[in-house]
Amino acid sequence: MQFPQSLNRSQLPLFEAFIGNSIPQLLDELVEAPWIEEPEPFSELRLSGSPGNCRHLLGPMLRELSQHQDARWLTLVAPPASITNAWLRSVGLNLDRLLLLQPRAGQDALELTKEALRLGRSHTVVSWLDLQGTQRAQLSGAARVGSAQSLNIRLD
């Protein structure tokens, strides 16, 4: 059903009472603000379901990251036991550009991840950690220092 509208009727200013005449000022500020080209250094992916389904979703993403044109490593820190060398090979990862790190006795996976990011030898560091807000910020800061990307995968 359509209702004919007159073209010479003006539209009611619905939001003017809330924002007043500040729209032009806001637009000017947005236009003048510099555009940030830098990508966010921290990302988190949450996967739930059976381990097989999670690996099925994870495989193509890791393969793409392993074929990154950057000469640095794709680093996996403390991957779950289901992420084996045989599985990595079967999904087509470039194993020549892959670094697997496991924490030593007494070493924390979070600290190992931050160190791998900070050093800058990896273009992307993938971790499997249950993070809190401050820990996300720490990984983001370490990634900025090393000009790297941090990808945390949460398996539920």
Q: Would you kindly provide a written description of the structure presented here, covering whatever features stand out?
A:
The N and C termini lie far apart (47 Å). Strands 1-5-4-2-3 form a 5-stranded parallel β-sheet, with helices on both faces. With 156 residues, it is of the alpha/beta class. The protein is 38% helix and 18% strand. The chain is globular and about 60 Å long. Strand 4, helix 6 (133-145) and strand 5 (149-155) form a beta-alpha-beta unit. Helix 5 (109-119) packs parallel to helix 6. The protein has helices at 16-19, 23-32, 51-66, 85-90, 109-119, 133-145, and strands at residues 42-47, 73-77, 98-101, 122-127, 149-155. It is built from 6 helices and 5 strands; from the N terminus they run H-H-E-H-E-H-E-H-E-H-E. It has a single domain (42-155), classed as Rossmann fold (3-Layer(aba) Sandwich).
Low-confidence stretches: none
Total number of domains: 1
End-to-end separation: 47 Å
Strands, total number: 5
**What gross morphology would you assign?**
globular
CATH topology (fold) name: Rossmann fold
